[in-house]
From TrEMBL:
Superkingdom assignment: Eukaryota
Family to which this protein belongs: Belongs to the fluoride channel Fluc/FEX (TC 1.A.43) family.
GO molecular function: fluoride transmembrane transporter activity
Principal location listed in the UniProt entry: membrane
Protein name, UniProt field: CrcB-like protein-domain-containing protein
Keywords: Cell membrane, Membrane, Transmembrane, Transmembrane helix
Length: 300
């Protein structure tokens, strides 16, 4: 619970920090790189972390890294590049180059960061000595604090300024449900096909479909939504979909698959599925003019 909340906060904070006029690197690159770096570091230290306290490893990888990185946001960002949703003065070929750049660079940066994180962990592992496992009292205290941290997202949403809701507090409400859905899908389905992590594929595809749907609702041309509805959709997109989908686990699974054929099949199938899903959701509505390329939602 708390690491899902922290992952969303880190993702939104990094995205805001990296969003500025004239930026030369797209904001999500920082998010995916950071999450995969931490994921690689934790993967290399899985044994001592699990020996100390097994939930700590799950919290750091599935909870924090999985919530920090986002597959659905990456897919939507690529799709918006194909559409030139920023209305930049450029040719169709430039649209293609923009989408391809975000595709290739994200995969490259994610895998490079994953392996660099593993390298850093190898350097510190000789000095890493796991402490004795925590006692029953400490475990129970941590569990209570975890629930309290997630429960605090409700008063944070209600009591903090209204303009914070669409920016962050609405997303915090839906953070843990998204992470829990991904965790359950992975534990139930990943073992079905050892050469194709079906659970992560289902989470990434389903989350991308949901995010595309929420974005369509936020871009209606004829019947704009109320500010409250727009805030909830933004929270679901940033919180639930952002935590349901993950690049860090996706990159780790690509690296862990045994053969090159399995790696390419999994990577390409997941990527193409995401883009095809968005084409199906956006395509017909864009062609008939029911939605526009940019969001029509307002939050005030």
């Amino acid at each position: 619970m708390p690491f899902s909340v922290l992952g969303v906060l880190a993702r939104l904070g990094l995205t805001a920090l990296a969003t500025y006029s004239g930026d030369s690197i797209f904001p999500l690159a920082y998010v995916q790189t950071t999450g995969c770096l931490i994921m690689g570091f934790c993967l290399a230290l899985k044994e001592p972390l699990s020996r100390y306290y097994p939930p700590a490893y799950t919290a750091l990888t599935t909870g924090f890294c999985g919530s920090l990185t986002t597959f659905s946001g990456w897919q939507l960002d690529i799709f918006k590049s194909w559409l030139n949703s920023s209305d930049a003065h450029r040719s169709a070929l430039s649209d293609v180059m923009d989408g391809l750049g975000k595709s290739v660079f994200t995969i490259s940066l994610s895998l490079a960061s994953l392996f660099f994180g593993m390298h850093l962990a190898d350097q510190v592992s000789p000095y890493f000595h796991a402490a004795p496992p925590p006692g029953k009292f400490l475990r129970r205290t941590v569990s209570v604090l975890a629930v309290c941290i997630y429960a605090a997202t409700i008063p944070a949403y209600l009591l903090l300024p209204r303009n914070y809701r669409h920016q962050v507090t609405a997303a915090l409400l839906f953070s843990f449900p998204g992470t829990l859905t991904r965790y359950l899908l992975s534990t139930r389905l990943n073992a079905v096909l050892p050469s194709f992590p079906l659970g992560t594929y289902a989470a990434n595809s389903f989350g991308t479909a949901l995010l595309g749907t929420f974005h369509v609702l936020q871009s209606t041309a004829n019947h704009p939504l109320s500010p409250a509805s727009c805030t909830m959709l933004q929270g679901l997109g940033d919180g639930y979909c952002g935590c349901l989908t993950t690049i860090s686990t996706f990159a780790a699974e690509i690296a862990a698959l045994k053969t090159a054929g399995h790696k390419y099949r999994y990577a390409l199938t997941t990527y193409l599925s995401g883009q095809l899903i968005l084409v199906c959701i956006f395509g017909a509505l864009l062609w008939v003019g029911d939605i526009v390329r940019n969001q029509t939602c307002t939050f005030n």
